Amino acid sequence: xxxxxxxxxxxxxxxxxxxxxxxxxxxxxxxxxxxxxxxxxxxxxxxxxxxxxxxxxxxxxxxxxxxxxxxxxxxxxxxxxxxxxxxxxxxxxxxxxxxxxxxxxxxxxxxxxxxxxxxxxxxxxxxxxxxxxxxxxxxxxxxxxxxxxxxxxxxxxxxxxxxxxxxxxxxxxxxxxxxxxxxxxxxxxxxxxxxxxxxxxxxxxxxxxxxxxxxxxxxxxxxxxxxxxxxxxxxxxxxxxxxxxxxxxxxxxxxxxxxxxxxx
Length: 264
Description:
Elements: E1 2-7, H1 16-28, E2 35-37, H2 52-55, H3 62-74, E3 77-85, E4 100-106, E5 112-117, H4 128-131, E6 140-143, E7 146-150, H5 159-167, E8 172-176, H6 184-198, E9 201-205, E10 210-211, E11 214-215, E12 221-223, E13 229-232, E14 238-243, H7 247-255
Parallel strand pairs: 1-2, 2-3, 7-8, 8-9
Antiparallel strand pairs: 1-14, 3-4, 4-5, 6-7, 9-12, 10-11, 12-13
Helix pairs in contact: 1-3
């Protein structure tokens, strides 16, 4: 399996239309890969809270259509990062809000196969908790020999989510993010922790650049179930490409059966 993590850099000057065209072009350049992953909220701006209502879209809106076409043109499974989702149906959640932080996954034919609404909202009563509803469902991508649990950025701090995914058969975790430079050490540590404790492949695709006054951490990474960092990006825009034998996940779990010793 070949995976490509597109560590996108952007600033406040690029329009949504320009950024969408640029991202679609980057996806098309990954033809020949099996799975391509984009960062969290790249279209709405990870820390651009004021822009979210204006840049929100339905899961079949213009951003999703551009990603679907790019996935089909490249012939890849595409985790399109996440959007600020405002359903065309007018749906609201239990808190009365109409926005979600929603990941989109497309097949190599461009079909929208999965959506994941971020469960843990970052902001401590501001940002996401103030503007967005929380998701509730575990979502998986079953493709390219993996059962990949989907999560987003701040979710990474909550190990019980990944245990729940493990208990439903996860062999990998795909984690798009807009993680800031101020907490880079935590990002790098938690990616490895989730890999080691669950014996899962971890694909962490972060954002680069500076927007809304926040410098992003970059350092997207592919981490093996052993905790070995197979590849790691720097802090600028970069495409991380890694070939990985998915059969090694089951082999490692069999050779070092730590998960069989769980008691609680």
